[in-house]
Known about the structure:
Keywords: Coiled coil. The chain is mostly helical. The chain is built from 2 helices and 2 strands. It has helices at about 1-115, 130-140, and strands at about 160-165, 180-185. The protein is rod-shaped and about 160 Å long.
Amino acid sequence: MISALVDGVLLLALVITTWKIVSMYRELKRLGSYHVDYQRIFDQTALALDGIEVSIQELNVRGAQVLNALGSRMDDARELIAEIDGLTREAKRQQSVLRAELKELSKATAMLTKRKPDDGAFHTAGEDRIDETKTDRVRSHPLLASAPLPGAAGAHSPKATRIHRIDDAFGSPFRSVSMTQKDDL
């Protein structure tokens, strides 16, 4: 009887072990199917990460290209600003030179066009007559050198003309106009 009892306990242990092995086998089979799903998901994740890595590399390359292009455009803009500033300074300098020349020219023409009605000689506002040395000094001005003397034969009374002169000493983009070219407005 003792052996039957021992055989019963062993049989019960064998049934329990078999049942556990079968349940473990089912669990392993189910885990195997999960493993296939996990493997497929991991493969897709690896492909997605590779795509992200390629995209990041492309973004880095394109970003570097954009930064280089932007930097060169900024350098070009700085050069243009410097050139514009230089041209502005040159234009202001030329403008001040032209103003000074116009002021000098207006003084010279005012002295030449003042005429006393009785003797036909030229007079300034504060003098009775202009002597020859003053006339020569006024005639030595480069803008008045080509003008005819008012008392000379064949000379007509001075007509209001505009004479433009723009210096092109620094290679500026301004158009140079000769001293003999006149505006006929």
